[in-house]
């Protein structure tokens, strides 16, 4: 495990939409954690057509550190499209992503690395989820539905704290551009025979910015993509 951590090659990316008050902090935390690992790393910011200063701040961060690069969407394409761009931009052997809203602690990522000796994916689940009751209920029902439809046993489908072997994305084709993306990745990976393990991580209250996952259009789009994916797999 120690040898793997010392020689880790990893891309870390943050999908962002209007996270001007969070992105500099989360990127700096990632750089600090990765430098401690002495890793071969890159940090990627995916700006999904933000209307605030996220894009400019991201470019400033990239200009200040050669280990940071930015992918820009000219318009807001959706969460799935942002993740797809992050996976396509990743060049290292492992790829990890978490949201740019600062609700997770990047320092909980390094302990996951040793698990990659036996598994291809670490799909985390939120401990003491810091969301309102409606979001918690919606999340629980969504996870149960997706697992039922695709024969999976995952505790928290949409937890934005996942580690993958990058080669997976050379072998699966993703079509979801909305909130279904996590479910699609796991469902397709399971059918390809990739091994998944799970680990609990802490979840923290959002201190700035606004959530968009509970938006009716986002939910409707997710169900529409779910029905299409079910017909494909």
Describe the structure in your own words.
The protein has 233 residues and is α/β, with parallel strands linked by helices. The chain has a single domain, classed as Alpha-Beta Complex (Spore Coat Polysaccharide Biosynthesis Protein SpsA, Chain A). It contains eight helices and seven strands, in the order αβαβαβαββαβααβα. A seven-stranded mixed β-sheet has the order 3-2-1-4-6-5-7, sandwiched between helices. Strand 2 (40-48), helix 3 and strand 3 form a beta-alpha-beta unit.
Helix count equals 8
Nearest-angstrom radius of gyration?
A: 17 Å
Give the overall shape.
Answer: globular
CATH architecture assignment: Alpha-Beta Complex
Helical residue percent band: 25-40%
Low-confidence stretches: none
Please state roughly what percent of the residues sit in beta strands, choosing from under 5%, 5-15%, 15-25%, 25-35%, 35-45% or over 45%.
15-25%
Summarize the structure.
With 233 residues, the chain is α/β, with parallel strands linked by helices.
Which features does this protein show?
20% strand, Spore Coat Polysaccharide Biosynthesis Protein SpsA, Chain A, 233 residues, 7-stranded mixed β-sheet, alpha/beta
Topology:
Blueprint: H1 2-6, E1 9-16, H2 23-37, E2 40-48, H3 54-64, E3 68-73, H4 79-89, E4 94-98, E5 121-127, H5 133-150, E6 161-165, H6 168-171, H7 181-191, E7 196-202, H8 216-232
Parallel strand pairs: 1-2, 1-4, 2-3, 5-7
Antiparallel strand pairs: 4-6, 5-6
